[in-house]
Design a protein that fits this description.
With 527 residues, the protein is an alpha+beta fold. 17% of the residues lie in helices and 35% in strands. It folds into three domains: 133 residues, no CATH class; 223 residues, no CATH class; 143 residues, 6 Propeller (Neuraminidase).
Length: 527
């Protein structure tokens, strides 16, 4: 009976994979098609180094063997081989056995794990051998030990929990008019906290919130991820709350999104209707889309990129032609920062701005003028470590890329920080220049647990001194917001804790998070 079910199931897969989409791509971010024109004999005549550049550079930017240790590359290659169709048929149960019919169809449409090898297995083994021969057995990791910020010059305190639940904060934002703090959790709640009255209100939502957009009349749009854990099922959505927390009723505007994490609002086609730009980060599948608002209130989808990994976007008229353009950070596959220049009529032209290696783990971007030359620069955090290459990496950290005025960017600052997740500009010490607040979701919790939050104090000329705080290890900070709780012009740092992740944490530290860790912690400077 099991054999019959297995045969039927394999035939089902073969049917779906026979219906793959062969449409031609418009740009490098609009296809995951593997494109090598050489035949088998030509490939087998190449050595491992040549093959690695050709094959590995086809799907993402080429990583040198020396970036990771041999043991880590082995884990990476086990996954990458499947992406090339190597031994997929022998691993069908492992790859698809737990998938629903809907997931099978989605994965087949994306040709994620081709049933037939895209290159000869002998060529793949040459690549593996080349990396194994040229990677190091051990990479020396630089200890990152920072001074602790003087406790006389800051205060920290938690925002009291509204419910007896473990900390799983997925989003935190301040509503600018009221000053209220809104934060979402993986337990499917949206909380509103009034700082002056120390009061809470809450709304039960269908899935964890990842972004929110406020309007002056008290209404708000809420972005829900759908499924928090990696998944290809499109369950994310945009809901509109026309009366905010007054009535707590919502109207669904957009659904069937692939794990969306960020949205922006702008009139992209100059029709006096506000459109929505959405980063559908996804998993194996995802998109970067804009939804055109029609006169009847419906939204029409336009796909800018049909690949996963979009995580943060900005909308401005970057080339001063009167039309709004888009800049997006892509944190998967061909990781990088890309401009999409608006040519009118819904047509966007791709302009690559910065490209990152796949092991860099970019996870956040801000646009701010650090050198006061009138041009916005990029502030980047790259320390995502929740993938197949988990290890402390000397190239993880915070970077500033300066804009020359013509949207050419050059790295001008780098601070190594293991697991850097978000980096935000803030004049924390109120001395007139921009400091940087950094939360690190994947620091070395064994040796330096306080490095999960680091403050970079601006000393001038793009020199920054890193500090930790003695309270930093009280949570595992996934999200961060710069707020003004007392409306006095002095900013505070809000840190949201999410205590689960598939990376090592000392048991006593994890237990303390579960039992007494705050959901949200506030850091405020004291002169």
């Amino acid at each position: 009976m099991k054999l019959i079910r297995y045969i039927v199931w394999v035939c089902f897969l073969l049917f779906f994979f026979s219906c793959e989409n062969d449409s031609e791509p418009k740009n490098e971010l609009n296809t995951n098609q593997f494109n090598i024109s050489l035949d088998t004999n030509e490939l087998l005549a190449m050595n491992g180094s040549e093959l690695s550049v050709l094959v590995c550079g086809n799907c993402h930017f080429y990583p040198e063997p020396g970036l990771l240790e041999k043991r880590v590359w082995e884990k990476v290659f086990n996954q990458m081989g499947l992406r090339l169709g190597i031994d997929v048929k022998a691993n069908l149960m492992k790859l698809y056995g737990s998938k629903t019919t809907e997931e099978l169809a989605l994965l087949a449409s994306g040709n994620i794990y081709p049933l037939n090898p895209l290159i000869p297995k002998e060529a793949w083994e040459k690549i593996r051998e080349y990396y194994n021969d040229n990677a190091q057995n051990d990479i020396s990791i630089t200890p990152l030990v920072f001074d602790t910020f003087d406790s006389l010059h800051y205060e920290s305190f938690p925002i009291a929990k509204p419910k007896a639940l473990p900390p799983f904060v997925t989003m935190i934002k301040q509503e600018p008019k009221s000053g209220d703090i809104y934060y979402g959790t993986a337990s499917n709640w949206l909380f509103k906290y009034n700082y002056s009255e120390k009061g809470y209100d809450s709304i039960a939502v269908e899935s964890p919130p990842t972004d929110i957009r406020f309007s002056e009349n008290g209404s708000f749009h809420l972005l829900n991820i759908g499924i928090m854990n990696p998944s290809d099922l499109p369950r994310g959505k945009v809901d509109f709350y026309p009366n905010g927390f007054e009535e707590k009723t919502n109207k669904n505007l957009i659904s069937k999104l692939h794990r969306p994490v960020n949205f922006e609002f702008a009139d992209l086609n100059d029709d006096d209707m506000e459109d929505i730009i959405i980063c559908e980060f996804g998993f194996n599948l995802g998109k970067f889309t804009w939804f055109e608002q029609k006169k009847d209130g419906q939204y029409l989808e336009h796909v800018i990129s049909n690949l996963p990994g979009a995580i943060k976007s900005f909308v401005e008229d970057f080339n001063d032609d009167g039309m709004l353009d888009i800049i997006v950070l892509k944190a998967q596959g061909k990781e990088g920062i890309y401009g999409f220049i608006n040519n009118g009529n819904g047509d966007f032209e791709l302009k690559p701005l910065l490209k990152f290696l796949p092991v860099y783990g970019v996870s956040h971007m801000e646009m701010v003028d650090f050198n006061q030359d009138g041009h916005k620069d990029f502030l980047i955090a790259n320390g995502d470590n929740a993938d197949y290459s988990y290890s402390f990496k000397n190239f993880h950290g915070v970077r500033i890329y300066l804009n020359d005025g013509d949207y050419n960017f050059k790295e001008a600052y780098f601070q190594p920080l293991y697991g850097a997740t978000m980096a935000k500009p803030i004049d924390f010490d109120q001395d007139g220049d921009l400091d940087i607040a950094v939360n690190c979701f994947f620091p070395d919790y064994e040796q330096t647990p306080n490095n999960n939050f680091v403050f970079l104090e601006n000393k001038g000329n793009l020199n920054f001194k890193p500090f930790t705080f003695s309270e930093s290890k009280k949570g595992r900070w996934l999200t961060m917001e710069i707020a003004d709780l007392e409306k006095d012009g002095q900013p505070e740092i809000l840190l949201g804790s999410f205590i689960y992740a598939p990376t090592p944490v000392p048991k006593d530290l994890k237990n303390s998070w579960e039992k007494s860790g705050p959901e949200v912690m506030v850091l405020r400077y004291k002169k």
